[in-house]
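Long-time lurker. I teach an intro course on protein structure, and each term I like to show students one example going from raw sequence to a predicted 3D structure in token notation. This year I'd like something fresh instead of my usual example. Would anyone be willing to generate the tokens for the chain below so I can use it in lecture? Attribution to the forum is fine with me.
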Amino acid sequence: MAEASPGPARARPRAVTAVALAVVVAFGLLSRRFPLPGVFAEHVGDALYTVAAFCALALLWPAARGASLAWTALAASAAVEASQLLSWPWLQGLRSTRVGALMLGQGFQAADLFAYACGALGAWCVDGACARRGGVDGKFSGRVAPGPADRR
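-- Reply from a regular --
Happy to contribute to a lecture. Here you go:
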């Protein structure tokens, strides 16, 4: 006997995702302006960078699975970090601007990759929790395992 399929995921509400993105970006900028103490000073902003990428991807593909968004956000963040090893003149010129420095960073640091992974995992976990709880406005339900009534 075939198991019941949980069915397709409903899309995340774009308005809620846009607000989440704005909040994450604001906290990311604040983390640079008012650094936290110790190890958090540098890495909170890096983790939030990947959370912002997760939110931006969720805006573009609201019905995408959380795992896909997390892996894609992590890959994009790692690619930006790896690009810091390049010293092409046009790329250096872009990084010399305030926006370019915030978007593309300056100077490769391997520890940033761990912060990006933490950010991707955190975003995926929060996204999954929102999916299970019905989301902020009750519209996003995500994929849910079959309930007792479905098991016969």
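Some talking points for your students: The CA atoms of residues 78 and 113 lie 6 Å apart. Confidence is low (pLDDT under 50) at residues 1-8, 137-147.
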